[in-house]
Design goal:
Number of strands: 9
Radius of gyration: 41 Å
Shape: elongated
Distance between the termini: 121 Å
């Protein structure tokens, strides 16, 4: 009976296999020059700089449609004066604008309706100056208007008022010209 009780325990399980050797690759970080849409200064100067060159354009053909001797010599002089291509259109007329300052006087206001003080700006007790960039056309009307600076609650009222202003046409050398100017609209409480 005793012989059956003295049995040796089963052998221990074999040890786990050694872990496989994982080759560690070091990845060199790529320098990012754009972060959130902003261009950053590089931290180091690269050793190799690639220079891109554009291919040169071929020379332009002569104006006589590329036929040696021109179209007239090919036709034996038929159609004297005809060159095969219509003459180029005349250049568009240049817009002449005169910048106020120096020897040019400021445009004279004929009609100047006052701006309506916005109720929200009045309640918030906001006052200040709205500066506008304007182009006054040859008839004395405000043709283009852009905001340069000013409080956002006051800008709309200033634009609406200045759009209705009328000026005496500015004359230079006997001809009316467009005027490039800056207009200031002041908003003062109680004024």
């Amino acid at each position: 009976m005793m012989a059956t009780l003295l049995v040796s325990p089963p052998p221990p399980p074999p040890p786990p296999p050694p872990p496989q050797v994982v080759k560690v690759e070091t990845v060199k970080p790529v320098a990012r020059l754009l972060t959130q849409g902003k261009l950053l200064q590089p931290r180091a100067i690269p050793k190799n700089v690639v220079v891109f060159r554009e291919a040169e354009l071929p020379p332009e053909p002569p104006p006589n449609s590329g036929v040696f001797g021109g179209v007239d010599s090919l036709l034996g002089g038929l159609g004297e004066g005809a060159t095969g291509a219509p003459p180029p259109p005349p250049p568009p007329p240049r817009v002449t604008r005169t910048k106020v300052g120096g020897q040019v006087q400021e445009a004279k206001v004929i009609a100047r309706p006052n701006p309506v003080y916005p109720p929200l700006a009045r309640q918030a007790r906001i006052q200040g100056k709205v500066q506008l960039h304007a182009i006054i056309d040859k008839d004395g009307r405000v043709s283009q208007l852009e905001v340069v600076s000013g409080h956002p609650l006051l800008v709309k009222a200033a634009l609406d008022a200045v759009q209705n202003w009328r000026y005496q046409p500015t004359v230079l050398n006997g001809e009316p010209v467009e005027v490039d100017t800056t207009i200031d609209v002041n908003f003062v409480l109680g004024g």
